[in-house]
Design goal:
CATH architecture of the largest domain: 3-Layer(aba) Sandwich
Distance between the termini: 35 Å
Number of strands: 19
Bound molecules: cytidine-5'-triphosphate
CATH class of the largest domain: Alpha Beta
Number of domains: 2
Largest sheet: 8 strands, mixed
Oligomer: single chain
Strand content: 15-25%
Number of helices: 15
Structural class: alpha/beta
């Protein structure tokens, strides 16, 4: 953060008061901060507050005859990172269509570097399809990163998602974007179980908690990667990632992975994907027949997502494919077989006794160069970091 130039954009929502704390955090960390505010933001926080904290005049007006130069281009060119907190629904909408109707949107349009936005708005506005679409546009076409809002009591009296993330979360995400050793990398992680429906009330699933996958997604994001987390249903609150995709069945997970794999440096398949699904899901709840003693449900094989990834058309950059194997016996043999069968580059194998649901885990990591590393007992976070270190050590090479 030291000597980095942060452009801090503040738009007009009640969360604007938190931007003062964020500004202070950047300054304390040694960054230079240039504040640019929308006029609406000035209704919520005085420019003087941010000027005093940043030591620089806060820019609000597009036209100022007492000033020389072209400020919206100058500040856009000078910044290492543009952080917009809060980013209102209206600001996101204007930006998604490329408007430059006031100073802050003109700066946004002129800026070419990395952007981190912390949306804040009422729950209904956050969930509105137009807002979802605008976020998607900015994320996919402009590479924006978001610090997702938290859930809780909102100033408007509602309770739900929409409250701006805390300044410390935004600060840490900004720090990772500037300094993390995974900066510039995109990692797709799958997590949790898949759920295969039998009828509207019954399903087949497994006991995966999702904790290992979430730990990897979290650490990768904290180390600066762009993280796509494709997750089956879990009871956990998801980490701050660039894209969260919630799926249910193996087929949905496969579609989500295949849609997003193109630009990934690594795909880490931690999900406990169901190997089989009912041949067909009954539209109505299945009833037992009179005197029926047995019921057979025909299951059919699900596609193997990890294996399918090895058959992707040959593009310039193939992602490193990492599989997880949960076993109850013969750990090393099963891991070697899975590495070969699924043409993975790395397999992380652990025993069900140490892996499922617990906090610590003991794994064996094997790779396509024949290396085998027993990790000893580690927290899931440490195992996540160990795996990410291995991806760096192999320089993200798939072959
Ligand atoms: N996997 C997958 N698609 C499936 C099944 C598994 O992508 N349909 C991935 C998992 O995400 C994991 C790896 O393959 O990374 C190993 O999963 P595991 O369930 O241990 O292996 P299986 O191939 O299902 O073998 P088995 O259940 O017979 O041990």
């Amino acid at each position: 953060m030291k000597d980095k130039s942060i452009l801090l954009g503040v738009t007009g929502g009640i969360a604007a008061y938190k931007s003062a704390v964020l500004c202070r955090q950047f300054i304390r960390a040694g960054a230079r901060v240039q504040v640019v505010m929308s006029e609406a933001a000035c209704e919520f926080i005085s420019p003087l507050t941010l000027e005093t904290l940043s030591g620089q005049p806060a820019l609000v007006q597009m036209f100022n005859r007492n000033r020389s130069g072209v400020p919206h281009i100058e500040v856009a060119d000078a910044a290492d990172l543009f952080v917009i907190a809060p980013a209102t629904a209206d600001f996101l909408a204007r930006t998604a269509v490329g408007r430059a109707s006031d100073l802050i949107s003109a700066v946004t349009l002129a800026y070419r570097g990395p952007v981190l936005a912390a949306p804040a708005m009422n729950t209904n506005m956050w969930e509105h399809p137009a807002t979802r679409r605008n976020l998607e546009t900015l994320r996919t076409t402009c590479d924006w990163r978001f610090v997702a809002p938290g859930s809780g009591d909102l100033a408007c009296g509602w309770t739900g998602p929409g409250r701006m993330a805390e300044p410390i979360e935004i600060f840490e995400a900004a720090e990772a974007m500037l300094e993390g050793d995974l900066c510039g990398r995109t990692v797709l992680v799958t997590a949790g179980p898949t759920v295969e429906d039998i009828d509207p009330v019954r399903f087949i699933s497994n006991r995966s908690s999702g904790r290992m996958g979430y730990a990897i997604a979290n650490m990768a994001a904290q180390r600066g990667a762009t993280v796509v987390l494709v997750t089956g249903p879990t009871a956990l609150s998801p980490p701050q990632v660039s894209e969260l995709v919630q799926v249910r069945s193996a087929l949905e997970m496969r579609a989500a992975v295949m849609d997003r794999v193109k630009d990934c440096d690594a795909v880490i398949m931690v999900a406990a994907v169901a190997d089989y699904r009912p041949e067909k899901m009954s539209e109505h709840k299945l009833k037992k027949g009179p005197g029926e003693k047995e019921r057979a449900i025909k299951l059919v094989r699900n596609p193997d997502i990890l294996e399918e990834l090895s058959k992707l058309p040959n593009t310039k950059q193939q992602p490193v494919r990492v599989g997880f194997a949960l076993e109850t016996e013969h750990l090393a043999t099963a891991a070697r077989e899975k590495l070969k069968m699924k043409k993975a580059h790395i397999i992380v194998a652990n025993l069900a006794t140490s892996g499922f649901g617990g906090t610590d885990t003991e794994a064996l990591i094997i790779d396509d160069a024949g290396r085998e590393e027993p990790t000893g007992s580690l927290s899931k976070t440490s195992l996540a970091n160990r795996l990410l270190d291995l991806l760096i050590a192999r320089d993200w090479q798939a072959d």
